[in-house]
Amino acid sequence: MTAQGKLWVVLNPTAGKGKAAKQQPVIERYLREHGRDFEIFLTKGPGDALNIAHGLPLRDGDAVIAAGGDGTCNEVVNGLLTRPFSHGKTPIFGVLPIGRGNDFSSTPGIPTDIEKALDMLAAGKLSPLDVGLVKGGFYPNGRYFINGLGIGFDTKVGFDAAKLKIKSGLAYVVGALINIIRYDPSPVMHIRYDNTEMTLPAAIVSIVNGRRMGGSFYMGPNALLDDGLFDICCVRRPPTRLKLIKIVLHYPKGTQGQCEGVYTDRAASFHLKALEGGMAAHCDGETVCYDGRELEISCIPGALWLIGM
Fold first, then answer.
1. Could you give the CA distance from residue 116 to residue 112 in angstroms, rounded to a whole number?
2. pTM for this model (two decimals)
């Protein structure tokens, strides 16, 4: 099965510190030379990619392409999955990873080289893509995500990294150092899924569909995009900064599951409740809450077709 309809490209020109804008003529030339029917929309600010994807006049076989980083992907996905007239058809979604952070695209192996990514897009091979839905915080009715949900240390690192004017992977490392020095108290959380329940002071909780966050941190090194399950990695707050540093240093290798106080598992849905303190949470880089009390996370198997897996 392949995507052979029109390609609706939603391009964020400010992605990659503005470098994405320079890719527009490359994309246009390639698609024109390959005889593809396409149209490019440029976003103008936050929420614009969501609104564009939501309102497109899609026909059978058409695909919507997020050209940008993880934030652009997240908005396009939310636009597609909140369309009022989908007629029961599974939307087709593609990615041109030209943003500052391209964590999601790393799992299905979509190249950051624009020409190679366009080759994959032109081939149009489709695979099912699971989608997450988180309810709570700023989104009581739910926010969709495709890569992952981060809570606690991970989220605070992301908040600080976003303020830095340096490369995404390095910014995340610097953000991690800032938060290790600060070492804020961790919320006491009750986590429930399947037949498992645990209560602990949680320094880091990652519930992921994709494998990587923050440019080089493998929160779910064995996660699959189409198995109907999310991987969870939960870190009990270490007693010292040094022990937290040792655990964090495992994330770039994806070996944190070997560390004491780190729990990993898989499930289709999770319920999280802060018994003491509040949860700082994000999904695909979009803030879910700064001081949340309760979150419901569920997996929707095969909610999208993804081009390129």
1. 8
2. 0.92
